[in-house]
Amino acid sequence: MFLCWCLSLVALIPLTTSTNPGVKVKLTAKGIEYGRQLAVASILQKLKTIKLDDMSGKVKVSPIGKVKYSLTNMKMVDVGLPTAALDLVPGTGVKLSIVNTYFRLEGNWRVKYLFVKDSGSFNLNANDISISTSLSIKTDQTGRPAVNSLDCGANVGKTSIHFKGGASWLYNLFSKYIDSAIRKAMQKQICPLVANAVSDLNNNLKTLNVLAKVDKFAEIEYSMVASPAVSKTSIDFGLKGEFYNIGKHQEPPFSPAVFSLPPQINNMLYIGVSSFTIESAAFVYNTAGALSLYITDDMIPQGFPIRLNTRAFGVFIPQVAKRFPGLMMKLLVKTVKTPVITFEPNNATVQSFASVTAYAIQPNATLTPLFVLNLDSSVSARVFVSGTRLAGAVTLNKMDLTLGTSYVGDFQVGSLDSIFQMVLKMVVIPRMNVQLAKGYPLPTLGKMKLVNTQLLVLKDYVMIGTDVQFTS
Question: How far from 388 is each of 222, 240, 337, 394, 468, CA to CA, in Å?
Fold first, then answer.
């Protein structure tokens, strides 16, 4: 499974290389080793299914003469793959080599010569078996990867057969003829089984979340934007890593900047997520109108002395209480342009630009605007991995209020600072954190689990180092 996940990332090679990636991934030698183990286990299971058809024939054995034989009920009882290597071939793909493999078969024998008929059982040991296959990856019509075997070679080096029952000491005299027939039959089955194992990868590749839904507003695309850089020890590749509105792929008015993952070897996998990816999410949600919130009095903590009504606000803006006495109020907090995300070493901040419109709620439930404030705020972001999703939480750094429009005459905006700091800290930010905690999906395949995960905030991107496990 891990192998096909690795291959799927390599396979998503685009038609153009003009776009910088928003997400970069490095598969290390440690990850390749884990992929080798899973690939060998998969092939081992396939080889255990080898079934040889019944065989019969005639051989001339001195001094007996012609001997008719038949071998039936042959089945595999043991398979071992002691030595295997999975190598990256720069500019080509992946090569899997398995040597010193052994098989053990059991079956029944029957012979007839002259006027003698005899039968019994046998076991056959096959040693020094070698298997080699090279894989290429293409993209199918749906944009998903498809794996193909470029070549496969298999050789059964040594076999030895031992007959049991009857006059088996005599029949061992012509065992070399049987050895040859079984060896050829086994060699014919190995590569088709390896090809079958490779073809099974394609079903798993279909689970790759090239386009992953986040929620009702957004999805994120993980297609490749450039050919992977393959070395002997790692694969480095770039993914688009861009958010889009569901069903509408509108490009934002900004592009990803160039960034590079530093050399790393401790984890199987390293994922770099740029500030562009997060900003494209902010652009999508802002375009969808999702970055807005109506705040009513029942959302204000009970113990807080300031309520959302004209009497309380009349303390700071007397004309509000005079013109609209005894009315409840409602606030609309809405972004006016896309928030700006900044990643610096060990520090992530978000600069938000919003408007706050205050309304008086009339007895007939209509809303009468009172004033509009410009609210610029800065929050610190904590970024973390939750399961296979990248999540976050924010805390308020500072805010700045200015008057945009007043429908009740001039007033001192500074007198409202404490109220709106409370609104941000106790209402807006907690709701933001509930959504941010849900996170968005990282590129994954099937039942993939991230373990031993670490995250660093670096210049213009965050880097996730992780090991990987697959559950059946």
Answer: 14, 18, 30, 20, 10
Tokens standing for 391? 């999540």
Domain count, the chain: 2
Q: Which token pair is 256?
A: 């990803």
User: Tens of pLDDT along the chain (472 residues)?
Assistant: 444 444 444 444 333 344 899 999 898 989 888 888 888 888 888 888 888 889 888 877 777 778 888 889 988 899 987 788 888 878 777 888 988 888 898 999 888 888 888 888 988 888 888 999 888 766 666 545 666 788 899 988 888 888 888 776 666 666 777 777 888 888 888 888 888 887 777 777 677 778 899 999 999 998 877 667 777 888 777 889 999 999 888 899 999 999 999 888 899 999 999 999 999 999 999 999 999 999 999 999 888 888 999 999 999 999 999 999 999 999 999 999 999 999 999 999 999 999 999 999 999 999 999 999 999 999 999 999 999 999 999 999 999 999 999 999 999 999 999 999 999 999 999 999 999 999 999 988 778 899 999 999 999 999 999 999 987 6
- Whole-model pTM? 0.82
393, 320: one domain: yes
Report the CATH number that the domain containing residue 226 is assigned in CATH: 3.15.20.10
Asked if 107 and 227 sit in the same domain, the reply is no
**The token pair that represents 173 in the structure block:** 């005299």
How buried is residue 363: exposed, middle or buried, by Cβ count under 10 Å (0-12/13-18/19+)? exposed
H helices of 49-98, where? Answer: none
Select from 125, 185, 186, 187 the least CA-distant residue to 154.
Answer: 187
- Show the domain range for 84: 29-205
- Alpha-helical regions (H) of 288-333: 310-314, 318-323
DSSP state of 427: I
